[in-house]
Amino acid sequence: MLQSSLGFHTMTLSLPLEAGKVQPLIRHFRRYSQNTGLIQIYRIGEKNKMYEYNPTCKFEYVLPRHIKIKYCKEDHGIAWSIRCNNWSKDFRSYMVEATINPKILGGIHDYITAATYDDMKDAIEKFNDEACRISPLLQTFDCYNLKRIDYCVNFDMNELIGEIPPELMMSLIKRSDIPPFCKEWTKYDTISHRKKSRSESFYLINPSVNINCYSKYMQLLERSRENEDRGFPPIPLSTLNAAQNIIRFEVQCKYRKIYTLSNRAEASGNYSVNKYESFLTYEACDDMINYYFVKTIGKSDWHTLQDAACIVKSHNFNIQKEKRLIGALELINKCRSVSKAKDYYQGSELETFKRTLKDLSGLNINPVTIPKGWGYRYIPNLLYTYYDKAQKEKIEIQRMEEFMNGGYAKL
User: Fold this and answer.
1) What is the CA radius of gyration of the chain?
2) Environment class of residue 238 by beta-carbon count within 10 Å: exposed (0-12), middle (13-18) or buried (19+)?
3) What is the mean pLDDT of residues 335-356?
4) How is residue 107 annotated by DSSP?
5) Residue 338 reports pLDDT greater than 60
6) Helix, strand, coil shares of the chain as percentages rounded to 5?
7) Contact 301/364 with Cβ under 8 angstroms?
8) What is the pLDDT of residues 199-229, one digit of tens each?
9) What is the DSSP string of 392-405?
């Protein structure tokens, strides 16, 4: 079985809550905490800092605007929040949010394999059971709206392209294109005194969709350290080891995108509250991943600059087109980024450069070339290599099933 997988990993659900029911719900969470010791209640202060929240303390009589409830002893695949909406000064409303990992919630403690539609039955059952144990105010899964879905594809590097270190692969991916509707996430660095992106991830943001490609090992290692700092158990070493060669590409669909998708689903006849049946099929996950992967990283293979130029020359284009294609490869190699190379152009020249990128894609050449000193001349496209291997595995399984069914029929 392939270790690489495509689907989704987490989703956030939301449920409107009347202001008068907030304190009773907090009391129910507190009672559940006292009876089981499974959860801890926090209020969120400035800069998203978490403080333990004791609703019976005389200093905590003012209802916080944001409360988080986390499971203490182990990851249950669910985290609760109670948020105040800031829609009006005269009317205050609240909502309950539940961020769930369907695989873990369903009892499969696997941080590496993507969840699929098939995981939802057990996850919904466990969600409803847990909500019932805590409070009737939490209702059931079917009452919640979907607020966010994180679609993903997990690439096992050894399985797909051989033993290329994930940090080298991320260095190559970070040179990819940044669509005009996105900007790269950056944070002020106190050492360099300028804003910098994360070295281990390619993270693009916009109001409706975030695109994040990162080393799963580095992400889990950082989360493990954060858990220990907050008094939670670290990520198991076995999980960290399993993530060593995993690169994840994810598309984080936020409320604005989910709203658009909900309208489309309703137009197709899905009138349920959260419409998860439309959002979480393999086809829906694949469409979302494929669209944004091609928009950013591309659908072509990586080559060295020299080999890419040789491929261009082998097609015997006229001298102007050959010069245009190779010139673009050389500029991107010099800038170490497709998006930075685009900054050299504007107007009609920019349109010509975009056409050049399409021409290179048609030759199966990723415009980002492999640095000379890496020792690699060719790296296949991650997503399309996954597609090829997944299709071969599917055919092999079908053949095996046909063989087994045929064998039993003869008996």
Assistant:
1) 25
2) exposed
3) 94
4) T
5) yes
6) 45, 25, 30
7) yes
8) 779 999 999 999 999 999 988 888 888 878 8
9) HHHHHHHHHHHHHH
Amino acid identity, position 369: T
**β-pairing, 201-205 with 183-184?**
antiparallel
Helix or strand run (H / E) with residue 389? helix 382-410
Average pLDDT over residues 154-183: 92
DSSP 18-85: -GGGHHHHHHHHHHHHHHH--EEEEEE-GGG-EEE--TTSGGG-SPPSEEEEEESSS--SEEEEEEEE
List CB contacts of 334: < 8 A, sequence separation 6 or more: 341
Helix (H, G, I), strand (E, B) or coil at 204: strand
Distance CA 60, CA 64 (A): 8
Which residue in this structure is represented by tokens 């209802």?
Answer: 63
Convert the pLDDT of each residue in 102-135 to its tens digit: 999 999 988 889 999 999 999 999 999 999 999 9
Which segments within 117-174 are labelled E, that is strand?
145-156
- The residue written with tokens 């300028």 in the block is 194
Residue count of the chain, please give it: 411
Distance CA 92, CA 21 (A): 12
Burial class of residue 271, CB neighbours in 10 A (0-12, 13-18, 19+): exposed
Q: Is the pLDDT of residue 187 over 90?
A: no
Tokens read off for 330: 């050389």
Phi, psi (5° rounding) for residue 117? -55, -35
Total-model pTM: 0.91
Does residue 192 surpass a pLDDT of 90?
Answer: no
Q: How would you class 402 by CB atoms within 10 Å of its CB: exposed for 0-12, middle for 13-18, buried for 19 or more?
A: exposed
Q: How much is the average pLDDT of 21-34?
A: 93
Cβ–Cβ < 8 Å for 243, 150: no
Encoded tokens for 273: 């509250």
Tokens encoding 403: 């063989």
Question: What Cα–Cα distance (Å) separates residue 177 from each residue in 173, 182, 247?
Answer: 9, 10, 18
Q: Is 150 helix (H, G, I), strand (E, B) or coil?
A: strand
